Amino acid sequence: MNYQFDFEALLPYWQSFLQGAVTTIEMTVVAVAVGLVIGVLCAIARRSAYLWLRLAVGIYIEIVRNTPFIVQIFFIFFGLSSIGLTMPVFFASVFAMVINVGAYTAEIVRAGMEAVHPGQIEAAEALGLSRFQIYRDIILMPSIERVYPALTSQFILMMLSTSITSQISAEDLTGVANNIQSYTFRSFETYIVIAAIYLVITYLLRFGFHAIALAIFPRRRKLGTPL
Amino acid sequence: MTDGFTINHLVYLLHGLVWTVVLSALAFALGGVAGFFVMLARTSTMRWLRRLSLVYVQIIQGTPLLILMFVIYFGLGVIGIELPPLMAAGVGMMIYSSAYLGEIWRGCVESVPRTQFEAAECLALTRWQVLVDVILPQAMRIATPPTVGFMVQLVKNTSLASVVGFVELTRAAQVINNSLFQPFLIFGIAAAFYFCVCYPLSVWSRSLERKLNVGRR
User: Fold this and answer.
1) Which residue intervals define the domain ABC transmembrane type-1 in the entry (chain B) (predicted)?
2) pTM for the predicted model, two decimal places
3) Do A71 and B75 touch (CB under 8 A)?
4) Domains of chain B, with CATH numbers?
5) Residue A71 to residue B173, Cβ atoms within 8 A
């Protein structure tokens, strides 16, 4: 083995790397924010009194959770363009991510909701809380608090999955790397560098999620769940 | 809508599905063996080994599988090893699954009550005997549902082997779509195939979980 590593060839491209990393983070933040809302709504719909609504949401969740993300992206991106609906790659990627993250979030939040003791809901009803108040204060917030670690690791997995959007030529970190390695012919080094950048983003996100948890879950210590 | 899509295309997709299953099985078998060693290292009494394996797990879990595939694909070429695509994809999937399975199994081993370790030590069993005769039989019961659940992830993630040119289901669908351009139909069929493999595993994992929790309700 006589391979000469040459990371210097990549130095002129540092701004592209940075731009790619920013795009990856942007995609993740938008997809997670929208996906969280959709996921919570789906989790509530799973407890609905209407059978058709429970079934429809259940089918959505099972289909998304049992097919690969890359196939979902191809289905959405190429499928929509085949019926004349062309959209920017960034938008298509985020759209696919929202659908994906929504289903996983719904399943995680539902598990948290099932762990809420029925007695607590009855107690809240006895105290005269409205339906909305019960959902917000008794069911939703405590269950999100309980499943927060599972949620955040799912979101981090989603961030890592943004790399797949490079396959529809999104300009995320991996997409940028694909371009750079074709200019420099330094493919091995390029992918090692972006692996390191992904690692940094992973830790940044973990830190960010921890900070958010400290801000919004003041009672966390009593539950004894690590954040 | 279906003109142009013939039975030959469907057979081609089915071939892709077979390779997806083969790659998944390979990844699970190899990754399981490697994951067992990761688990041993993560629960080792030697601190440097625990640290080292933690770094390994953190790196694999903190970078996308897609990038791991690229690094192996280009990296092996660089050091002059020519592997057939199946082996290259298999190595990538093995490394990936070893980190996740090792971490899942570590959790299961650590969830066996501490007193079981201590009691076994009091009986003067060797460390290996403690592990094989006392801890693993208990940990395996706990480990089955999450392991089956991870197999779903594994099957889905074999789709990423398509980027290094291995013709499995996703790649086969791409190839057909490039000539026919009927993405809804072709990727819909591919998704249905994946669903047929993954959904039974999901259901199995869930029922195993329910059985395991029966005593605790």
Assistant:
1) 17-205
2) 0.89
3) no
4) 7-216 (1.10.3720.10)
5) yes
